[in-house]
C-alpha cells in the first residue's frame, strides 16, 4: 500500500474511533454531494475522474459514519434534473453507477462490511433498464441487513417525492371513499366546499400555535352530515410522510458541500426545525473524514444550543 | 436515541488502530480533548462575531430606502424576489413583527427587488385584515417617501390582494405566508385531490408536479430567489417545503437573532456571487 493510502486509512480509523467516543451522534444524515465537476476542472481532470473521486469520497465517509454508529445516511446521487445535462455526461454517470453500485454490495463493500440495507430512492423507472435491475438486485441482496441504512437518491427530487406521496395517499383512500355507504357525487361536492371553508378558516382564524393545533383538530373532525366520508379522508402530515419513497428516521443533519447555500430539491419534506443544515465550502471530493467529524461536532454544539432554546424537545 | 454500543462491532470501529484497554482510554481522552478544543474555538469565534456585528450594526441604524440603494449599487445582481423569515418570539410579539415587516418592505424597495415574501410562522400578520395591513405599511413608508410619493405596492395573502401607494407602476408585490402554507397546505391539497378523484373529475395520473405547483402558485405564492433569516443558524421554521426548492438561503452565523439591515446586506452580497445551474 502506498503512503497516501496508509494515511487516508489511518485518518478514517481515527475519525471513526473518535466519533464512536462522542457523547451523541446524529442518527440520520442527508448529504448533497456537490462539486465533483468543479473539482475536476480545478485539477485539470476529466469529468469522469471528478465523479469517480466523488464516489471514492462517498465510500470513505460511509465507512467512517457506519463504523462510528450512525444509523441512516441519505445521499443525493443523481437528480431528475441531471437528465438535462449533456447526454455524454449522463451516460458517463450511468456507467459510474453501474461500476460502483456493485462495489457497495461486493465482499468487503460498505453493505457487506457494516450490515447496511441499501434503498434506491426516487424515480427508478427513469434509469436505463440494466441499472433498474441492478438497483432491484442490491435492494434485494441487502434487505435483511439491519444495522444501518443507506438511501441512494437516484433519480430523485423532493418535489417528485412529495407528489408521489400525495398520489399514493390519494390512491389509498379511494377504496375507502367509494365503499362508503354515504358516497354519492353531490355529497362529495358539498365536502369540497367544506374543505375550502376550512382552508380559509385555517388562514384567517389562527391566532396562536396552540389554537392552531386546536383548529387543526377541529378541521379534521367531521361535521354531522358528512361524517363518515370525511372520516375516510382523514389525511395528516404523517400520512403523507408515510407514503414518501422511503420512510426514513427524522433527519438530524444535512450536509451540503461546495459552498452553495441551497437545498436543491433535496429532502424538503424531511427538513424540520430539529434538522441542522451544514453548508460546507469544500468540494465533495475534498470532503475528508476530518471534515465530516467537524460537521458532526458542529451538529453536537448546535443541538446543545437548540435544546436550550427548545426545552420541550429535551426528551428527543 | 443512540443504540447501545455492542462489543462485537468494536474491531470494525477501531479499524487499523490498536484495540486494548489502554488504547481505548487514550481514544476517549482524545475525543474529549478535541471536543473541548473545538467548543472553545467555536465559542471564542461566537464572542468575536457578537462584538464585530455589534460595531458594524451601528453603520446601518435608521437606514432609508435611498441609503439602501446606495449600498447595493455596486452589487452585480440583486434578487428579484426576496423572502424574510420573521420570528414572533424574537421580535417580541405582533407589534415587533409588524414593525420588522414594514422595515423589510422599505429595504426591499430600496434594493430594487420587485417581490417580497414575509413569512411569519404563527400567522399573526396573515390573520390581519389585508387592507389594514396595507394602510399600516403605506403610512410607515411615508416617512421615507413623503406624503404623496409612496410607490405602488400590491399586498397579497393567498388569492386575496389589495393595492396601495400613491405613484407609478407597481414597484413591489408583498406576499404574507405562515406555517399553514407549508405542510398543512399539502395535506389540504391531498384531501381535495381525494374528493376530486372520487367525484371522477380527476385521474390519478393528473396529480403531477405541474398541477401541485400551479395550485401552490395560485393559493400560496411563488418561491423567493433569496430567503433571509435572522437566526444564528438556518431554521426554516416550517416554511413551505414546496417553495424552498432552489432559493438561496442565508443566515448570518452567530447573529443571535438580531434583526437588522446588516443581515440583509450580507445576504445580498452573498447572493451577488452565486451562480445557479440547476441540474445542468
UniProtKB/TrEMBL annotation, chain A:
<feature type="region of interest" description="Disordered">
    <location>
        <begin position="198"/>
        <end position="230"/>
    </location>
</feature>
<keyword id="KW-0808">Transferase</keyword>
<comment type="similarity">
    <text>Belongs to the UPP synthase family.</text>
</comment>
<dbReference type="GO" id="GO:0016094">
    <property type="term" value="P:polyprenol biosynthetic process"/>
</dbReference>
<dbReference type="GO" id="GO:0005811">
    <property type="term" value="C:lipid droplet"/>
</dbReference>
<dbReference type="GO" id="GO:0016020">
    <property type="term" value="C:membrane"/>
</dbReference>
<dbReference type="GO" id="GO:0045547">
    <property type="term" value="F:ditrans,polycis-polyprenyl diphosphate synthase [(2E,6E)-farnesyl diphosphate specific] activity"/>
</dbReference>
<dbReference type="InterPro" id="IPR001441">
    <property type="entry name" value="UPP_synth-like"/>
</dbReference>
<dbReference type="GO" id="GO:1904423">
    <property type="term" value="C:dehydrodolichyl diphosphate synthase complex"/>
</dbReference>
<dbReference type="InterPro" id="IPR036424">
    <property type="entry name" value="UPP_synth-like_sf"/>
</dbReference>
<protein>
    <recommendedName>
        <fullName>Alkyl transferase</fullName>
        <ecNumber>2.5.1.-</ecNumber>
    </recommendedName>
</protein>
<dbReference type="Pfam" id="PF01255">
    <property type="entry name" value="Prenyltransf"/>
</dbReference>
<dbReference type="GO" id="GO:0005783">
    <property type="term" value="C:endoplasmic reticulum"/>
</dbReference>
<dbReference type="InterPro" id="IPR018520">
    <property type="entry name" value="UPP_synth-like_CS"/>
</dbReference>
UniProtKB/TrEMBL annotation, chain B:
<keyword id="KW-0812">Transmembrane</keyword>
<comment type="pathway">
    <text>Protein modification; protein glycosylation.</text>
</comment>
<keyword id="KW-0808">Transferase</keyword>
<dbReference type="InterPro" id="IPR038887">
    <property type="entry name" value="Nus1/NgBR"/>
</dbReference>
<dbReference type="GO" id="GO:0045547">
    <property type="term" value="F:ditrans,polycis-polyprenyl diphosphate synthase [(2E,6E)-farnesyl diphosphate specific] activity"/>
</dbReference>
<dbReference type="GO" id="GO:1904423">
    <property type="term" value="C:dehydrodolichyl diphosphate synthase complex"/>
</dbReference>
<dbReference type="GO" id="GO:0005789">
    <property type="term" value="C:endoplasmic reticulum membrane"/>
</dbReference>
<keyword id="KW-0256">Endoplasmic reticulum</keyword>
<protein>
    <recommendedName>
        <fullName>ditrans,polycis-polyprenyl diphosphate synthase [(2E,6E)-farnesyldiphosphate specific]</fullName>
        <ecNumber>2.5.1.87</ecNumber>
    </recommendedName>
</protein>
<keyword id="KW-0460">Magnesium</keyword>
<keyword id="KW-0472">Membrane</keyword>
<keyword id="KW-1133">Transmembrane helix</keyword>
<dbReference type="InterPro" id="IPR036424">
    <property type="entry name" value="UPP_synth-like_sf"/>
</dbReference>
<comment type="similarity">
    <text>Belongs to the UPP synthase family.</text>
</comment>
Amino acid at each position: 500500500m502506498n503512503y497516501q493510502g496508509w494515511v487516508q486509512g489511518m485518518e478514517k480509523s481515527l475519525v471513526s474511533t473518535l466519533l464512536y467516543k462522542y457523547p451523541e451522534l446524529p442518527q440520520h444524515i442527508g448529504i448533497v454531494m456537490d462539486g465533483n465537476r468543479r473539482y475536476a476542472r480545478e485539477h485539470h481532470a476529466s469529468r469522469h475522474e471528478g465523479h469517480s473521486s466523488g464516489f471514492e469520497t462517498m465510500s470513505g465517509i460511509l465507512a467512517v459514519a457506519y463504523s462510528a454508529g450512525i444509523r441512516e445516511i441519505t445521499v443525493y446521487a443523481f437528480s431528475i434534473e441531471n437528465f438535462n445535462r449533456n447526454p455524454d455526461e449522463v451516460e458517463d454517470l450511468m456507467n459510474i453507477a453501474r461500476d460502483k453500485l456493485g462495489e457497495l454490495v461486493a465482499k468487503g463493500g460498505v453493505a457487506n462490511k457494516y450490515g447496511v440495507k441499501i434503498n434506491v430512492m426516487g424515480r427508478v423507472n427513469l434509469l436505463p433498464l440494466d441499472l433498474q435491475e441492478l438497483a432491484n438486485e442490491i435492494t434485494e441482496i441487502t434487505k435483511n441487513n439491519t444495522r444501518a441504512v443507506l438511501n441512494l437518491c437516484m433519480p430523485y427530487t423532493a418535489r417528485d417525492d412529495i407528489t408521489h406521496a400525495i398520489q399514493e395517499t390519494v390512491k389509498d383512500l379511494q377504496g375507502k371513499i367509494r365503499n362508503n355507504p354515504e358516497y354519492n357525487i353531490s355529497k362529495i361536492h358539498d365536502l369540497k366546499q367544506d374543505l375550502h371553508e376550512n382552508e380559509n378558516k385555517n388562514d384567517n382564524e389562527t391566532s396562536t400555535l396552540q389554537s392552531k393545533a386546536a383548529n387543526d383538530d377541529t378541521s379534521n373532525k367531521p361535521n354531522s352530515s358528512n361524517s363518515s366520508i370525511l372520516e375516510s379522508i382523514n389525511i395528516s402530515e404523517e400520512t403523507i410522510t408515510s407514503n414518501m419513497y422511503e420512510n426514513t428516521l427524522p433527519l438530524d443533519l444535512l450536509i451540503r458541500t461546495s459552498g452553495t447555500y441551497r437545498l436543491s430539491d433535496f429532502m424538503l419534506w424531511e427538513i424540520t426545525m430539529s434538522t441542522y443544515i451544514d453548508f460546507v465550502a469544500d468540494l465533495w471530493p475534498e470532503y475528508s473524514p476530518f471534515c465530516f467529524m467537524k460537521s458532526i461536532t458542529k451538529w453536537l454544539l448546535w443541538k446543545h444550543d437548540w435544546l436550550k432554546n427548545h426545552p420541550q424537545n429535551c426528551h428527543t | 436515541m443512540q443504540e447501545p454500543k455492542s462489543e462485537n462491532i468494536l474491531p470494525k470501529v477501531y479499524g487499523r488502530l490498536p484495540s486494548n484497554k489502554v488504547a481505548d482510554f487514550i481514544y476517549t481522552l482524545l475525543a474529549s480533548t478535541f471536543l473541548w478544543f473545538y467548543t472553545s474555538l467555536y465559542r471564542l469565534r461566537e464572542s468575536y462575531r457578537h462584538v464585530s456585528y455589534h460595531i458594524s450594526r451601528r453603520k446601518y441604524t435608521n437606514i432609508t430606502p435611498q441609503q439602501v440603494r446606495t449600498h447595493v449599487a455596486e452589487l452585480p445582481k440583486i434578487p428579484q424576489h426576496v423572502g424574510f423569515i420573521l420570528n414572533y418570539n424574537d421580535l417580541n410579539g405582533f407589534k415587533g413583527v409588524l414593525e420588522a415587516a414594514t422595515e423589510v418592505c422599505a429595504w426591499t424597495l430600496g434594493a430594487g427587488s420587485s417581490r417580497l415574501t414575509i413569512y411569519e410562522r404563527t400567522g399573526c400578520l396573515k390573520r390581519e385584515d389585508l387592507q389594514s395591513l396595507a394602510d399600516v405599511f403605506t403610512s410607515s413608508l411615508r416617512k421615507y417617501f413623503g406624503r404623496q410619493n409612496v410607490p405602488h405596492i400590491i399586498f397579497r395573502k393567498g388569492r386575496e390582494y389589495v393595492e396601495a401607494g400613491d405613484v407609478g407602476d407597481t414597484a413591489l408585490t408583498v406576499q404574507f405566508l405562515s406555517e399553514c402554507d407549508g405542510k398543512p397546505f399539502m395535506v389540504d391539497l391531498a384531501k381535495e385531490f381525494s374528493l376530486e378523484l372520487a367525484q371522477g373529475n380527476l385521474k390519478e395520473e393528473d396529480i403531477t408536479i405541474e398541477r401541485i405547483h400551479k395550485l401552490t402558485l395560485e393559493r400560496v405564492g411563488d418561491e423567493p430567489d433569496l430567503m433571509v433569516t435572522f437566526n444564528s443558524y438556518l431554521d426554516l421554521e416550517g416554511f413551505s417545503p414546496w417553495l424552498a426548492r432552489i432559493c438561496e438561503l442565508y443566515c448570518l452565523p452567530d447573529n443571535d437573532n438580531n434583526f437588522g439591515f446588516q443581515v440583509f446586506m450580507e445576504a445580498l452580497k452573498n447572493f451577488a456571487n452565486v451562480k445557479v445551474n440547476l441540474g445542468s
